[in-house]
Amino acid sequence: MATATLTGGFGRARPLALREGADGIGVDLAGLGGAWVTIRLTDDPGAARNARLLMSLAGGDGRPGPPLAEEALGGGVFAWTGRLPEDVRALRIAGLVPGRPLILAAIEIRRRGRAGLVLSGLARDPWLTVRAAYWRGLGKRVRGRAFLDRALRHRRESGYAAWIRRSASLGAADRSRIRAEVAAWDAAPLISVLMPVHDPAPRVLRAAIRSLQAQLYPNWELCLCDDASRDPRVVRLIDRLAAAETRIRIVRRAENGHIARATNDALALAQGAYVAFMDHDDALPEQALYEVARAVRDDPGLVLVYSDEDKIEGRGRRFEPHFKADFDRELLYGQNYINHLTVIRTEAVRALGGLRPGFEGSQDHDLLLRLTEDLDPGRIRHIPMVLYHWRAAGGSGTFSDRALARAEAARLQAVSEVAGRRGARAERGPHGFTRVVHPLPVPPPRVSVIIPTRDRAELLSVTLDGLFAETDYPEIEVVVVDNDSREPETAALFARYQGDPRLRVVAAPGPFNFSDLSNRGAEAARGSVLLFLNNDIEVIEPGWLTEIVSQAVRPEIGAVGAKLLYPDRTVQHGGVVLGIGGVAGHGHLGLPDSDPGYFARMVLVQEVSAVTGACLALRAAVFREVGGFDAQMLKVAFNDVDLCLKIRTAGYRILWTPFAKLVHHESKSRGPEDTPEKRARFQAETAVMQERWGALLGADPYYNINLSRISAHYRL
Phi-psi region for residue 507, left (φ > 0), alpha (ψ -120 to 50) or beta? Predict the structure, then answer.
């Protein structure tokens, strides 16, 4: 049972009432509205450490406020510092790792003064604190608060070395707890580690095997295939290590067969229910196999388990972490984002015939494509922890480094086979990644483009000209939903298209309600595909709509969004990430269009939790199935996110594609949220989303819980 205490200044601690339940822990904060506080949460040392927590505040009406971005301090301690809302009533804490119960030892809340916060910032990052104070003006109350927000925000977006120290290091208590937990298991699954070896530097091979021997989980075996190594030092090292370690099993090839054949020979030795793939020069952190074993024990139906990874250089420095999405079939077509650590049920690998010779350099990608082609995503588990260190140093001797072109050709062939079975084709995409192109039906479906508008004819005319004159899609109708336009320029624009069967104007007077206007447009539409488009969108490429429709007509796809750019050609919309700023935010906001983004995410088709309603396409049948936009509770903000979450709940997937690119002159026709009425409406709609979608907003499956929820820039 956790304890909760409140301290202030030099005063004594007093207990706070708390409630523990299946949905997490609640702490009573009545009377603390508006206070600056530091909240510290400490794991129970006798229980499994929480990898990540979700903290949120509940107001007087019981509705959740914005999630709080926590700061992992290491040793199972999490913290958050900030100003509580005026109407705060309770703190809610939930865990974010599937299958892992939330158990805390202590919850400490300490009142803070502004001077103490400044000193704390100076201690942590003096240059940042002084610079922020200079620019923000610490002597002014409003600017001082902005300074504090900024300073605390940057503290939570730390560098990778600091993140490792504070979030990923195990202490003696952690190791003891893991060993005791494993010892109590009635059935500990055997994990067979497959390692093909061919002439690595002896020091890196020794380091790889030592990282296995250092595992906190003892029930593993190393199935090592020496693929005709010519270096006698490697041969002697393998013999010496195998003689000293009973869990190492060896097979030797008489001739070099390359990585696929060597891995298959290692697979033939495997006795475990699961096989883990490990290169001869990489390393595993000590808890890697424990986390895998725990996952498959929690869910015995799992077929594929994978983790986050990073790189390690010759001196042991870790860098370039890859914090991955949960299973994303579309992203896997474009790149093998899953490796490493990859662990697969042994019988599933053998049923596929193992790795395929001839696909060297992309043999793992080929295996994963074939494995997941018809696999229920519920049998795939992503562990959001760095459980693999990929060595990027001399002496590794990897195939793909020596024959990059051949590896790329193998990847394209592997994707082509899978895509071909679905009537699509694979081609080389930007930066050497793979693009899957889906055909349009014959004849192409009619697309009803629905554009809510109120005046601003100079913007709408650009949008209409782009649709009718610069888009190569053959079957378009445009439904303009006119919300009380009064300017003569707008009337003249409508008159210009009078008699043109491609455009209809639907009058919709009354207060601005984007959801209602969009629903009215959908009712008037005649096409089987609906495209909701803002009136400030500019067409810059002719093939954008063909790409969107080719994705939207796929039966398993619920909605599709495009890559939207600001006029200065920086990214405005790279998909919507849940949890940013409390509800949702745009991914890669402000990134130059030419930048490939976080691990090439801005040049690859991928699944996302939601896309913006500024350019959102879906089949009319799907729109009707989920009930359209919520015109009662979400009149302006977040209606697009809500629609997408309803679509996902109905079993469809949401896609974002960079191969449909447009310019968005964002909010020029509606204006900013700069009045008390607009701010109140926005806050109410925020509360609706948090109450309706709850924990989904704090754990976007296509983002990563190790990345910041302050912004969707894929930073720690």
Answer: beta
Total residues found in the chain within this entry = 716
pLDDT tens, 212-229?
999 999 999 999 999 999
pLDDT of residue 137: 34
CATH number where 227 lies:
3.90.550.10
CB 443 within 8 A of CB 528: no
Could you list the beta-strand ranges (E) of 50-150: 53-58, 64-68, 71-74, 77-83, 90-95, 104-111
Whether residues 529 and 398 fall in one domain: no
Lowest mean pLDDT among 267-271, 303-307, 667-671: 667-671
Angstrom CA distances, 611 to 104, 192, 493, 571, 575, stand at 36, 41, 30, 14, 5
Peptide bond into 676 cis (omega under 30): no
User: Which residue shows structure tokens 């939903």?
Assistant: 481
**Residue 267: its H or E element:** helix 258-269
Using CA atoms, how far apart are residues 623 and 538, in angstroms rounded to an integer? Answer: 25
- Please choose, from the candidates 80, 86, 50, 76, the residue with its C-alpha nearest in 3D space to the C-alpha of residue 67: 80
Q: At what angle do helices 126-136 and 141-156 cross, to 10 degrees?
A: 150
Reference 269, options 227, 224, 226, 229; nearest CA is: 224
- What range defines the domain where residue 645 resides? 447-698
Total structural domains in the chain?
3
Q: Which of 290, 287, 206 is nearest to 248 (CA)?
A: 206
163 with 206, same domain: the answer is: no
Q: Which helix (H) or strand (E) holds 619?
A: strand 615-619
Q: Is this model's pTM higher than 0.85 or not?
A: no
